[in-house]
Amino acid sequence: MGKQAIVIGGGFGGLSAAALLARDGCTVTVIEKNELLGGRARYWHKDGFTFDMGPSWYLMPEVFERYFSLFGKKRESYFKLKPLDPYYKVFFGEQGDVELTPDFDKNIELFESFEKGGGEALKAYMEQSTYKYEVAMEDFLYRDYKHIGQFFNRRLMTEGLKLGVLGKLDSFVSGYVQDRRAKQILEYAMVFLGTNPSQAPAIYSIMSHVDLKLGVFFPEKGMAGAAEGFANLCKELGVKLLTDTEVTNIVTKDGKAVGVQTNKGYFAADVIVSSADYHHTETSLIKKEERTYSDTYWEKRVVAPSMFIAYLGIGRELKGLEHHNLYFAKDWNGHFDDIFKRPAWPDQDPCFYLSCITKTDPSSAPQGCENVFLLVPVAPGLADTDEQREAYFAKMVEHVKKVTGEDLGKDVLVKRLYTHRDFIQDYHAYKGTALGLSHTLFQTAVFRPRHQAKQIPNLYYTGQYTHPGVGVPMVLIASELIAKEIQETYGR
Questions:
Q1: Residue 184 pLDDT more than 60?
Q2: Is the CB of residue 198 less than 8 Å from the CB of residue 170?
Q3: Architecture of domain 4-39+53-81+220-301+439-490 in CATH?
Q4: Does domain 305-427 have CATH number 3.30.519?
Q5: How far is it, in rounded angstroms, from Cα 343 to Cα 289?
Q6: Cβ distance 42 to 224 under 8 Å?
Q7: Coil, helix or strand for 373?
Q8: Residue 159's pLDDT is what?
Q9: Dihedrals phi, psi of 258, to nearest 5 degrees
Q10: Are strands 271-274 and 4-8 parallel, antiparallel or unpaired?
Q11: Most distant CA pair in the chain: distance in Å?
Q12: Are 22 and 237 spatial neighbours (Cβ–Cβ below 8 Å)?
């Protein structure tokens, strides 16, 4: 295209968009505010431990394969994958713990052990999940939406009820299984899409196909290692990668963006792509009259959770844990209410996620030690003081010990607590959200923020706020959609 393109942000969204623009002939510069590329998928090194700071689940591998194929490349040339077995371990408190594995017959037996007929129910549920996933990939995810008529297309109108667009996931799952353990396994992924399962559209039952059929993997050197692979692709394509450089203003003239001002100078551009926080870009980088969305719009959004994270280097092995570990409270609705209805630090029996990547990658910790990532979803916008963090960490150490038998407060060699104000400081995250916007019905597809700015036509957005939404695979799809739009507009 022969255009100068600036990409704001060097996470998966920015890197994936930059590579596509360079492929299409643009001269591309990525400008990242932090010292390392990767966005949320950065490393943190401390005393021989290497922590993945952000995403920790590698799902939907075919999206990554497709992305690299757009360049005539193979994903394994940039990072290698290891399939996990078990996929993950789930703790249910007094009802024990179970493992989900690549052996689907074992998963059927597990569901049958939960309730009579549970195995057949899982098979039936997975059949519809697979069907929905194939429809979503073919008709919905790789399609941009500029007006509501494009969303309510013929297939949606004829199969809307079957696809579960209008129903709620929790009610839908209850039509197949009744045991709370079975239901939670089929619904938990909604938390990582920033949504309460009781409010998520039933179409998101597709996540069970992603989870139990497509499999769970681990990239060599972690998710930050995968981000490095995307950065290496960019380098091969001639993309200029600037770190420790923050965009402070998108400069416009006659209704178009002409460049960006940074703390290290001005960069001219014909096209700008922001993979920075959407709300931050709108409220801090452009003029109020140039914004697509008002303050009222943002105030009414259902913002996805923030995360209370503890990065821990433990000086011994934790034998009762797998790579991925989850705890689901018997009444997890109380935890969701603390996030979405009455924002507060989850106090009564909070759910949590615990990652021990040393189970797969021993090099991430010194010999005989464990690399631990403890995560609790919490409401965005909460007060976040050092005292609050330490008190909550102490509470969670006791809670984890009670649930798993492992004492995370013992033999601690490295400790770092990370939550709201870190997400704000490092990523300008709206209300300290870790994920962006929740996936409610009216924040799905055409109802998510636009890929193209309304008042500045050569400013585009990629990342978790836009369609198709939260998660690294969705972000890659978003970048593909805007690259296609930019090519069609400027490549004529």
A1: yes
A2: yes
A3: 3-Layer(bba) Sandwich (3.50)
A4: yes
A5: 32
A6: yes
A7: strand
A8: 62
A9: -120, -10
A10: parallel
A11: 68
A12: yes
Q: Look over the chain and give the mean of its residue pLDDT values, rounded to a whole number.
A: 94
User: What token pair was written down for 79?
Assistant: 């990072």
Handedness of CA 132, 134, 140, 142 (dihedral sign): positive
CB atoms within 10 A of CB 431: 19
User: 467, 481 in Cβ contact below 8 A?
Assistant: yes
Confidence of residue 185 (pLDDT cuts 50, 70, 90): very high
How far apart CA 111 and CA 103 sit, in angstroms, is 13
Strands in 27-31's sheet, in edge-to-edge order, are: 240-242, 27-31, 4-8, 271-274, 459-461
Q: Where in the chain is the domain with CATH 3.30.519?
A: 305-427
Question: What one-letter code names the amino acid at 69?
Answer: S
Q: What is the pLDDT of residues 246-289, one digit of tens each?
A: 999 999 999 999 999 999 999 999 999 999 999 999 999 999 99
Query: Could you please report the per-residue DSSP string of 358-400?
Result: GGT-GGGS-TT-EEEEEEEEE-TT----HHHHHHHHHHHHHHH
Angle between helices 180-187 and 118-135 (to 10 degrees): 20
Lowest mean pLDDT of 95-99, 147-151, 162-166, 187-191, name the range. 147-151
CB-count burial class (<10 Å; 0-12, 13-18, 19+) for 181: buried
Which segments of 188-263 does DSSP mark as H helices, in order?
A: 206-209, 222-236
- Joined together, the tokens standing for residue 297 give 């719009």
Selection from 203, 216, 197, 186 nearest residue 438 by Cα: 197
Residue 163 has pLDDT above 80, yes or no: no
The per-residue pLDDT for 164 is 60
Question: Which two tokens mark 75?
Answer: 């994903």
pLDDT at 147: 58
